[in-house]
User: Fold these one by one.
Assistant:
Number 1:
Amino acid sequence: MGHDMQRVPSTTLSGSDSASQTVTSHMDTRHAASSQSLPNGTSQAYHDERGQPWMQNGASGGDTASSDSDADLPQVDAKMIPLSITISRLITYAYTELVTLVDTLPARTDADRRSEILKYTDHMTDMLTKLLVLVRWAKHAPQIQKCQNAIAYLDSQNRYFDCAVDSIYAAFMSMPGVRMRNYDVSNAAEILSTGSYQRLPVAIKRAVLPPKLSKHQVRETLEAISGIIRKRILCGEPVPLAMRRYVIKNGRIVFTVPGEFEAQLTLLQYEDNIPWHIVSVRVLVAGDPLLPSEQQIAVNTRQIVEFAQQILVGASTQNQDSSVQPPQLVQLYDFLHQQCFTVLLETVYKQASVLRRARWENLLQVEMAPGNRSLLVIRYWTSSRAVAAATSQPGDKSNIITFQLSVLPVPRPIHAPALSDEYKEDAEFERIENDRRNLIPKIGLTVTWTANSGLAARKVWTRTVSHTNELAAATGDTAKSIADFDLVLDPSSVNTEQLLRQVTWRHARSILKSLYELMVESQQFNESAVELLYTAASGVTKSESELTVEEVQMCTAIPCLRAWYRQGEGAVDITVDTYTGRVVVRASEAVAASSSLSEAMVGQLTDQLNRQPWRIAALLVDMRSSLALADLDCLVHRSLGLRAQTSHAAQPRTLPGFVVSSVSQRTESAAHASQQPQPTSNIATNFPLRISQQEADALVRGVSGSENPLSRIRFYMVEGTEGVEEQVGPAGSACGEWYIMVAMTDR
């Protein structure tokens, strides 16, 4: 750009970007710019025909030397545009908007025309005002251009200077290589006299492997490390109570917590606050090795070691800064202790999930939230046909096993009642109590078992353990007694199916015991007529006192409730299916099966017992009465030739399919026999006898009592008595029949 050309920065065009449209043919691009006198009157700006501004010297003249020096400077045109282009684009934009306004105004109303003309005028006024400000500012464009050129010139000179300095320094660094060095006489004399060079860097010795130690040196080194470890343990290193079982050998200390983990530690330096170095960690919580691989979990021991080492390093730093933080081994135990509980929950969860997809399909539910891996819920007997569902409400959380990690309560201070308040607030007392609390576990596992038998209120069994191996021992199982609710889970051989088997076994035993108590309390069955037995794997029937501890823990003896509906002649065995939770009734194998006890009758008794288990005594009495009446029908027919009166009345509601009462509808002639109003009664409504309703009710009350159901009464018509005339009353005689009535009672 020439010296007389005024340019403005491109950033000043931001207010008129819309004016950058193409110049139309209707616009004359030759405009004369109004001249502006400079403040000192020495020069005046004009524009040529192309719109390019140029400068004209005033009366005072210009400085020729200054013009020559300016010409030597490099010209910088970056981000600069001529003023004429800005003016041309603005004029083109104004003209184009005016033409558009003229074309669109005829189609508008007067009010819209005025509004559009006013908007156009205001907008163009703003744009022209901005252009005027820009033109006035352009008077100083030559001075700004000179400054930019000078800055560019100085930058180029600075680059030349830097290149020169770099070249000189490169020459300085390369000069020693072109001259001959002096002979190293001193080092040569030292090597010849001593046989070695004594000034080698220490890093070379570190890089070279030292000579291999002998077996004697290795043994001495390991013994020394073991002595250091022994001294640190005996001189005040707090060790948790669960980690008191340890062995020091071969320069390591091996901590073993039964049922949880085994950790090997060592020391890399001989200092008190140096953190322990973990050699290895082995988690002792695992699934049953006899189970398939799909029910096993892989424990990432390497990741556990890395996290544990970070805890030890952080604990050593915290112990230096503050004495409130737990010691290193305490924090290590808390971390590994919690990890063992987590592995136990994950193992149970995975095995239960596999069982749910296999043999426990639709009968087992397993829940563990992804964000909360410390809570595991297992629901069993989820079928609506189970006996436990008889009294369950929608949404009732029964028959569940819950495993949850919980914080153990803080132990009470030692001899706290005997200490004064002043001593309790003493710092030394607080330190002793904190040390004692640090040595015990802080995280435990709470196992909750909620069971519903369908007979009474649900029972809740809760047990909180501080160590996993506490689950491996039962709390109440002995050779003489069996706890109703208990769990046994071996952490070193976790078997969720075995856990569910013992849970359902104890639950089934609890249901059968409740049924046993209901039958005895009903006083319709004595204790000799009801037996709670156990069938061993060999098929031998045992009583509860004859069971061994192994049979109870392994749940190999199947509990069975044997009910004798006929003492010494007929009995049924009642068991509980451990998979579905349904009560199963079958004819007992202790006696010969009765021909009257059909499979349909047993199946209907099973359904009724699962729906209403609290009515077991009444259901068995009804079955016993039905069987007795059925046998009586057969006996009477074979011996006396009598036939029972059949009935088309409604079937009884107790046990559908049993032998119903042999009564028939009253004949129409019997309805005419009594003109008196019939009283309402639910005792005897359908009799085959031609008697009034009052006489029928009185007959039933007198024979068997008011509570005896009609289904326990039989009427046998004596053959050959049809049409026999008998004296009914003063009015005359009528035809009648002879009947034999048999009534069953609970006595």
Note: The longest strand covers residues 443-451.
Number 2:
Amino acid sequence: MLSTNERTRQLNGTCVDSVDMELFLHYSLIPSLFIILILSFLQRREHRRQRDDTSYLLTNHFEIIIPLDFLGTFNNRWSYGIAFGATANKIMFLFSEGYQPLQVPQWAQAFVLLIGGIEVGLSHLPFFACLSSEFQLVSSILGFSYSLTWFAVTILHITQCPHGQFLGRYETLVFYWPTLLCLFFLLGYFLHMFVKSLRVHLGWELQTEEKPFLELHQAEHVKQLLKRRPLQEEKKSWFQTRIYEWDPCFQFPSRMIGTTVLAFICLYLFIVIEFCMFLYVRNELDVFEGKLESYIASTNQTGSLTLIILQVKELMNVTKGVWVVTILPASLTCVSYLFHILACYRKHMKRLWAGNKHFLPLKFHNPSSSESVVAIARYSGWQIAYILWGYLIIHVVQSLGGVMFMYGLVLPVTHNRGLEMLQGLGIGILTISIVLGLMVLQVWIATSFFLQPKMDTADKQKPLALNNRKVFHNFNYFLFFYNVLLGLGACLSRLLVSCILGTWLIARIDRTIMQSGYERADMGFRAWIGMLYVDHYHTNPVLVSFCHLLITGHRERRLQQAIQYGHLSQPSGPRISTRSRTRWLLLQTLINNPKLVMLRKSKSGHGSQEFIQILLTCPES
């Protein structure tokens, strides 16, 4: 049988990979910085600080670009999500700690990974900057060119060496097809942006309106609050009541969409990498199994050592089969978690909008502002990491459960020991049933003999008032010794249930797995709560609607004043300059309050110094 390296060389033939993706990542920083500088120069500053002693060469140009508004971006959500998906391979490269540009000690590894994260973010920043730029004609050309470069280099890397040593044929394509799909989508979207902006530039279409301060779904949410509730609610379908109900008055921000898309792709890549590692371990186990078979054939013994070797071979075969079978349920569990987290985000946000904080632990009713701001930056990355580690832990636990199932039920039947298995299973079920029955019997006896009757027939249960106290005390005394033994089993069951639920919910960042009172030790849950509060304070539809009314009213008042001043500045009277009027009022104020002169910023010049001296000698009125 050929080894994996020999099989790979036969598949690839004379494979010469002239594209080093890690080296290309470093060189991509050059065009990335060039695109960022161009878009920053085109961006205009809305508020420029006034300085009298310095003249700016760039006037009001060169503004820091924002790649993505992590709070209030509700437009082009899927475009930003696909842009995040294009970074999946590089994120998995960092996750596997394969980024080693420098040889540093182990304690400095965190700084290297930080540099790697910044480099990956900087190399993919043009995707987001071109999507969010106001100058769509220029940004579409730059974004299309940059995306086309990455797409061409990735295609070249795949075509030169498409096969690998683990999956065999088209292994490289299996790893890179999600990135190619995302880049292809970005190419199409930038092309669409170019055509649309070109038509606007030529005057064939009207310019689209600026981003509204109040989104449409936020306004609809406020309208729903102001409407009177119907007396009879509409009947919902089974899907709406059990799975998900669509809400047109709510939209997920781009951060949540991008996190979900990137988590899906990273989970897929993680499963592929795990399967490759499984194939490698399986091949090594096959070699080890062959050596065991040759040893048995050479010794020709039938003693206890041979029996142990056969049991080891059986364990390896069972483990390999169970590991492959549990890939599907473990992956489906994590995929369902991603959808469920989105549903929980909407549910929690609506509760916070309504002023309901009872679903949160008491310690999180007033979180720290600084921790909440940091949480909005941590959440997306931590959510992806929790999903990946959660998948691995869930897969291991399900595999252990599968091995126990095989050794407990399946293998005894294949080894003609089905009756013994059924007998042991029956005894175990009977023992547990008796224990549970005695516990239920205690509750029934307490309900029937040790509680006083109901005070009203409409009561659901009897009042907590003791009856037959003497019998009750004897009942407690004789069951005291039995409950000590029963408590041992209850303690073990508590530990078992906690381990199962903890490992099953480890990927759920929206739910803590800590005991009540220790929730602050769960850093993932703290990041979730902080992120909810930041979104609640900055995207609450009622608050945004109130601010929208204030801004709109302020603009209308300024427009009315401008119209009023326009009528006053008709040729019927002398024209008064607004600047001259302001300076005259300033002079009057300074004459009436000479002490304010010392608080003003002084100008260089002989005339201004004499003017200050004159004002200081003026008596206060």
Note: The longest helix spans residues 254-299.
